[in-house]
Amino acid sequence: MMRSKLLSLVPCATGPFRTMSTTTKLTTVEVNDKTGIATLTMNRPPVNGLNLDLLRDLRQSIAEIEGNKSRGLILTSSNPTIFSAGLDIMEMYKPDKERVRAFWTALQDAWLALYGSSVPTAAAINGHSPAGGCLLATSCEYRVMLPKFTIGLNETKLGIVAPMWFMSSFLSVLPRREAERALNQGRMFTTDEALQIGLVDEAAGTKEEALEKCAQFIGTFAKVNPIARALTKQQFRAAELEQLESERAQDLEKFLFFINQPAVQKGLGIYLESLKKKAKN
Ligand SMILES: CCCCCCCCC/C=C/C(=O)SCCNC(=O)CCNC(=O)[C@H](O)C(C)(C)COP(=O)(O)OP(=O)(O)OC[C@H]1O[C@@H](n2cnc3c(N)ncnc32)[C@H](O)[C@@H]1OP(=O)(O)O
Known about the structure:
By secondary structure, this protein is of the alpha/beta class. The protein has 11 helices and 10 strands. It has helices at 2-9, 52-67, 97-115, 132-139, 164-171, 176-185, 191-197, 207-219, 226-246, 248-259, 262-280, and strands at residues 20-23, 27-31, 37-42, 72-77, 121-125, 129-130, 142-145, 150-152, 189-190, 202-203. Ligand 8Z2 binds at residues 46-47, 49, 81-82, 85-90, 128, 130-132, 154-155, 158, 160-163, 254-255, 258-259, 275-276, 278-279. InterPro entries: ClpP/crotonase-like_dom_sf, Enoyl-CoA_hydra/iso. Pathway: Lipid metabolism; fatty acid beta-oxidation.
């Protein structure tokens, strides 16, 4: 089933490209008419916290980019210092029962869409990228990061646990030993450290430069058969995608059980307070 879905979404090898700019509430898609590459920009102030609506918009924008025959997707942020602060903790703290189910389901959907996207993907990481922000970046095939920001899966520092599929994205970028240590430590890497360890592929001085480097990466596929490339990517990523697809319901229940533990709620409350205090100082 995945294969036929993929074939219908394979990007066109030839133009012409349409100039297009569409905005859902929290994301913008702009297709460059010269390169045919789509830039998907997250725009949810103040920190691109991944709430239900942003996750749904992301998924919708990814589907749109696949549907409009773009040559590739660059994920970035409209915020000059934050790529994404990760999951909106307000969705998990004292959550509404129905909404939190929809929220986690939307996160699963967004990850399946991005990690399994048929088009080449790159992240122009133009700001901090903790936790869910790092998940988005590592779900892409290439990462370019601006200086003096941080990226990583810091879940253990918040007293929460990154699910297996967060780890899968991380593991598709970092060697196993490095990934395990960083996950256990909840380590945030500076741009230089991320570059050194291979968590990001390149550094760039400005957002424009980062976008250009991402476009260059996507351009490396110009002479590759798009169907063969897309099927190769999909096969390479099939195990992780199929694991989540087959365990979605259990993954949701596991999340709900974990998040509703009084100790986890208490920890999230303390963490939120510390973020707010920091903002006041
Ligand atoms: C077994 C399996 C079981 C499964 C178990 C469950 C698994 C869950 C996996 C979780 C994944 C996650 O992504 S959890 C999320 C992890 N994210 C983080 O830890 C990032 C926390 N944020 C930061 O570090 C910083 O905010 C940062 C992004 C660097 C930006 O710093 P700044 O100084 O520019 O901005 P701040 O002043 O800190 O923040 C501006 C405002 O945004 C708020 N804010 C910041 N981050 C926020 C966030 N993630 N969610 C909500 N609100 C946030 C602050 O409280 C402020 O609110 P006001 O004071 O009201 O303005």
